[in-house]
Amino acid sequence: MIKKYLLILSLCLGDQICAQEIHFKIPDTLRNKDYDYLFKRIEESENDSSKQSLYLRFYLVKSKSEKNFEKVVNGYKNYVHHSPENLKLIYADSMVYTAKKSMDNALIGSAYLSKGIVYYSLKKHDYALDNYLIANNYISKTNDKYLIYKTKYNIAHIKYFLGFYDEAISLFKECIGYFKENSVGGYLNSLHSLGICYNRIGNYGLCTDTNLLGIAEGRRLANDEMRDYFIHSEGVNQYFRGNYSLAIKKITYALPTVHKYKDFANEAVGYFYIGKSYWDLKNTQMAIPYFKKVDAIFNDKGYIRPDLRNNYELLINYYKSKNNLNLQLYYIEKLLKVDSIIHNRYRYVSGKITKEYDTKELLFQKNNIERLFDKRKYNDYIFTSIILFLFLTVVFLIYRHIRNRKVYRQRFDDLMKKSETVTKVESKNIVNGIEDINQDTVVSMLKQLEKFEKDKMFLEKDLTATKLTVSFDSNVKYLSKIISHYRGKKFVKYINDLKVDYLITLLKEDKKIQNYTNKALAEEAGFSSTQRFANAFFVRTGMPTSYFIEEIKKGQS
């Protein structure tokens, strides 16, 4: 229904523009000016709306009078870039309509891509993805490398939005390789996005390196438009590195630029991580106003993403500690709304990205390979080689399967010889303390860890070092050092091993659990995904879950 109203409004506005064009008198000073001149005047008149309106209108009138589809599309694109938010989509529809009349795949694909970018800027990711996929359908039929990589760049952002960070990293690296020689803006933006992805997968060192490279490359290329964005990204990265004061300083420095560009998404992210930094510095009075700014952006723009969900958990906890039931209830209701939005938004976009875009990419590659095969003069030789390769692959897989079964059997026997499942690495003597941590702090945290293990609190889903340190009233640095010293592991492996050891005990004792799927087992132990559970189980036991359960059942029959 909304699309229907937008179409009607677009047609009405189109009629209005056409009517204005009929009576529009071309100023003598503009009659012989080319499109490049007009475009520069449009950009330079950003602070003079009446003058910019004149150039915008003449650019479109000129292109229509010359019946130049490409320039007409660019004319509407100019309006998209320089119009209020409530008109951008209307001009985008006119841009797509004109492009379709041209029957030019590159022009049509470019128009849909631009419309998708408008939706993305409004954080309407489902509509953005729909338009990216349509754009990809047209652009994939062309040899326009710039458009192909521009589409890859925008789909990479959807991958990032969904949390498919490794796939997004791969696409952004491709874009960096192309844009470095062909587009300064595309190059710097791709570097910025790559750095953010490194942060999300926990590679904070690479994130810092990428941000520093982005700033240096911007300086080398005499383009500082992205400089404050790299600083903003590094500020968020410093939060995750535990440098809270530095995080506050960098994000605060960058926020005026982010606000100037009306980038409410990065503004919300900046406010959240400033608030989180103050929160972890135990300065709740400074933290709460920033959390409320995140909420204000959510109220105004409807913007939210999974990591910002914690904003409402912290507000709820704060007002609970203050016995303020009204605000506690208010933020609980807000969190329910946030959860509903995140669930619906991610479920829709995830289904589209895996079923439509990835399939199109595979089909595109398959068709290219088939065309290459058609050009080969020695088809018989290739066919024979493929058959031989497949045969050797099957033989190798059979051999590896038999060998793995033997290895798994030995590991299973070793595991079952233990009198009981070890749930933790034996603690070292507390006398052998850690130099830079107070002895009383060490003793206290070890007692809390023992209670944490005994009460099986490690089964909590999405448990992080930050969450645990909050409950311990400590900090991430101390917790990581103590777990490393006294449990002999890094935090993630420590939690994963506890979860796996818990499941091993269940599988030995409860036949009903033996019939669980990997997904159900992952849920039982609080793993965030089935794949992470499967990986953690194999690392801990040296065998797949299916083999372990199979052998357990044999021993009980």
Question: How would you summarize what this structure contains?
Answer:
The protein is mainly alpha-helical and 557 residues long. The protein has helices at residues 2-23, 35-44, 49-65, 69-82, 85-102, 105-121, 125-139, 145-162, 165-182, 184-200, 204-220, 227-240, 244-260, 264-280, 284-301, 310-321, 325-375, 379-417, 439-454, 465-472, 476-487, 491-509, 511-514, 518-525, 530-541, 545-556.
Describe the fold and architecture.
This protein is an all-alpha fold. Among the domains are: 143 residues, Alpha Horseshoe (Serine Threonine Protein Phosphatase 5, Tetratricopeptide repeat), CATH 1.25.40; 116 residues, Arc Repressor Mutant, subunit A, CATH 1.10.10. It contains 26 helices and no strands. α1 crosses α5 and α2 runs antiparallel to α3. It is globular and about 95 Å long.
- Radius of gyration of CA atoms, rounded to a whole number: 29 Å
User: Outline, from the CA principal axes?
Assistant: globular
Strand content: under 5%
Cα-to-Cα separation, first versus last residue: 61 Å
Question: Which runs of at least 5 residues are low in confidence (pLDDT < 50)?
Answer: 1-22, 361-370, 419-429
Task: Please identify the top-level CATH class of the domain at 1-143.
Answer: Mainly Alpha
Helix coverage percent of residues?
over 70%
Could you give the order of the helices and strands? HHHHHHHHHHHHHHHHHHHHHHHHHH
The name of the CATH architecture of the domain at 1-143 is Alpha Horseshoe
Number of helices: 26
Mean pLDDT: 82
Q: What is the name of the CATH topology of the domain at 1-143?
A: Serine Threonine Protein Phosphatase 5, Tetratricopeptide repeat
Biggest β-sheet strands, sense, barrel: none
Helix-strand category: mainly alpha
**Tally of DSSP β-strands:** 0
